[in-house]
Write a structure and sequence with these properties.
Jelly Rolls, 2 domains, four-stranded antiparallel beta sheet, 21% strand, globular, DNA-binding
């Protein structure tokens, strides 16, 4: 992501003995609609945290497809090849860390939630210089708040076949779309049987179960942003709150109330 970068040259230039060494190499922030919507597969030696402020993106890394909605991010270790695509334009950010000074050593791509405090800390670190006396404390708190999420909180497997992928991307952008597989088959000029087979083969789930997971993934963020259970249920395609609560509990193991915004 080639966004406006705040570079911390002290980390890259250890010859400056008077300056503290920051574990952060750079913080990039900007709007995804300014750049290409598809990022080719690549790797870099430094670990990175990419997270969404208001965009929705997918990232393919370590043979898995990750959905990154607003308020969530993905930790990518150094040397891990990854690529992705922007499904909905918006604001995003990427933080690059020094391989030699970063205290996080997760060996695999890892999903994280970026709550209000963590978001403000990253914004603060983007603004201040590497000489600012608040940096060491802010950096320490930032790392303390980077906690791995359970898989279901961030991971939605995206099919790769163009027909199934087109349907998946539409549903990620609008989880409330109520079209069943027969209607989607007409939309992508395929058969119901073929699409059902593709979803099972490429996501490990039936179409209905895959769509439920996408809906619940979106619901988690809506609840965290302050939406009521009833409003959230309707926003992700459930006419009855009771049906939504049942589906939510099956997917997450918790009731929607667990994720309600409480600030």
């Amino acid at each position: 992501m080639r966004m406006a970068a705040n570079q911390y040259l002290t980390t890259a230039n250890p010859g400056d003995a008077d300056a503290p060494v920051s574990p952060i190499l750079s913080i990039d922030r900007g709007s995804t609609d300014q750049f290409e919507q598809t990022i080719e597969a690549h790797a870099h030696p430094e670990p990175k945290l990419i997270w969404s402020v208001s965009a929705t993106a997918t990232v393919t890394a370590a043979a898995r497809h990750w959905l990154i909605p607003p308020g969530y991010g993905l930790w990518i270790p150094g040397g891990v090849e990854h690529g992705g695509a922007v499904l909905r334009a918006g604001e995003g950010s990427a933080v690059a860390f020094s391989p030699d000074h970063c205290p996080i050593t997760w060996p695999r791509p890892t999903g994280v939630a970026v709550g209000p405090l963590l978001r403000q800390l990253i914004a603060h670190l983007h603004r201040v210089s590497h000489h600012d006396p608040s940096r060491p404390h802010a950096e320490a708190l930032m790392f303390a708040l980077l906690v791995p999420l359970p898989t279901h909180d961030i991971h939605v497997t995206m099919p790769t076949d163009p027909r199934a992928r087109a349907i998946a991307e539409r549903l990620v952008a609008d989880p409330a779309d109520e079209r069943e597989l027969a209607a989607w088959a007409d939309h992508v000029h395929s058969s119901v049987r073929t699409l059902a087979r593709l979803f099972t083969m490429e996501t490990g789930l039936s179409f209905a179960r895959w769509r439920t997971r996408v809906r619940i993934r979106t619901a988690v963020q809506l609840l965290a942003d302050g939406a009521s259970v009833t409003t959230t249920a309707r926003a992700v395609g459930y006419r009855k709150p009771s049906a939504f609560i049942s589906a939510f509990s099956r997917v997450t193991g918790h009731t929607p109330g667990t994720y309600l915004h409480t600030d």
